[in-house]
Amino acid sequence: MTGDKTRQTYDAIVIGSGIGGLCAAAMLARYGKRVVVCESHSVAGGAAHEFVRDGFRFDSGPSFYCGLSDRTSLNPLRQVLDAIGETVEAIAYDPLGHYHFPDRSVPIYGNAERYRAELAKITPSGATEFAEFERAMLRMYAGLKDVPSIALRSDWQAIPLLFSRYAIGMLKLLPSIADVDKSVGRIADRYIRDPWVRRLLDIECFLLSGLKAHGTIAPEVAFMLGERDRSVIDYPIGGSGAIVDALVRGLENGVGCCGCDRR
Ligand SMILES: Cc1cc2nc3c(=O)[nH]c(=O)nc-3n(C[C@H](O)[C@H](O)[C@H](O)COP(=O)(O)OP(=O)(O)OC[C@H]3O[C@@H](n4cnc5c(N)ncnc54)[C@H](O)[C@@H]3O)c2cc1C
Known about the structure:
- 45% of the residues lie in helices and 14% in strands.
- The chain is an alpha/beta fold.
- The protein has 2 domains: 3-90 and 234-258, FAD/NAD(P)-binding domain, CATH 3.50.50.60; 95-231.
- Helix 1 (19-30) links the parallel strand 1 (12-15) and strand 2.
- The chain is globular and about 65 Å long.
């Protein structure tokens, strides 16, 4: 923080200018709170900051995004950008990329049918097992998508509130309720024996959470499979720095400030 900013008073101080801190701060500023973001690094963005070398801009972290260019997307980041009146232009593409294994490379489509068709070329029985697993995941997604993530809390009082406000989503979620706190690996144990499909699921989970299937929570994968198919995979023009810029702009257009450079 520099200059006058240190002498001002604030309603909220956010420690850390990662995507999480910037979203929280921008939303607070959007609703009229005086907020300052303190960052120990010289640039904003945390794991998603960008850096420039020899005129080229690099993402330091995330490169896979979903739903930035889709108004109906349930991506919470997209919802925050909408709330603060910011947009980030993004270009949709599919496949997401190719996963390279020692024996083959596989295109990974967001579109569920094409994803399964690629699997079936490698292991028809594995693709059938995966389809069963996917059905269980999409059942969970059907409930989750009707309950805004912003409404979720970990205290028991949230349960009557969720049923009173989001009854349909909660009813759809009931068949999967016992699985929402389980790892996706435990759910996959019920459906998938094929070692090749298990390896693929581990890689998908690793890219999502940094852990294999047994360390990744089921709702995260349910959401990934559901949104990847229903919405779009896309990439922001300007990279992750463009998202950071938009959040900092939203923050500063409210009554907040970020105590570091935008980049
Ligand atoms: C290599 C890599 C690839 C990734 N790929 C993807 C992807 O493709 N898609 C995707 O969706 N996600 C991806 N992620 C995950 C995503 O980047 C992170 O989940 C997200 O950016 C985390 O944001 P955050 O605000 O929670 O935390 P962080 O980004 O870690 O932000 C925390 C901030 O707080 C600051 N801080 C900490 N302590 C203090 C302190 N005491 N005082 C002041 N400041 C402090 C830190 O400097 C940092 O800027 C990837 C992450 C990495 C590292």
